[in-house]
Automatic annotation (TrEMBL):
Protein name: DNA gyrase inhibitor YacG
Cofactor(s) the record lists: Zn(2+)
Lineage, broadest ranks: Bacteria, Pseudomonadati, Pseudomonadota, Gammaproteobacteria, Alteromonadales
Annotated InterPro entries: DNA_gyrase_inhibitor_YacG, Znf_NHR/GATA
SUPFAM superfamilies with a match to the protein in the record: Glucocorticoid receptor-like (DNA-binding domain) (SSF57716)
Origin superkingdom: Bacteria
UniProt cross-references to HAMAP family, sorted A to Z: DNA_gyrase_inhibitor_YacG
Subunit (UniProt): Interacts with GyrB.
Cofactor note: Binds 1 zinc ion.
């Protein structure tokens, strides 16, 4: 069964796995709740992705190895 997202009119599968039904996503749910405006700047900013691209491969390796050591501590 499919319903239309009230915010963007996209088809949404109505099933237990559709966490945000009848919305297609958390974003549309927040828009409907009027809570999106405050977060829009943060989430729509492409800065995060370019930051990752600007990292040195060595920095990424270091970050990954830190994560792994954290992981094994738990
Ligand atoms: Zn939507």
């Amino acid at each position: 069964m499919k319903v239309k997202c009230p915010t963007c009119q996209q088809d949404v599968e109505w099933s237990p796995s559709s966490e945000y039904r009848p919305f297609c996503s958390k974003k549309c749910q927040l828009i409907d709740l009027g809570e999106w405006a405050g977060e829009e700047k943060v989430i729509s900013s492409p800065a995060q992705e370019s930051d990752i691209n600007n990292l040195d491969p060595e920095d990424i390796e270091a970050m990954l190895s830190e994560q792994h050591s954290d992981f094994f501590k738990h």
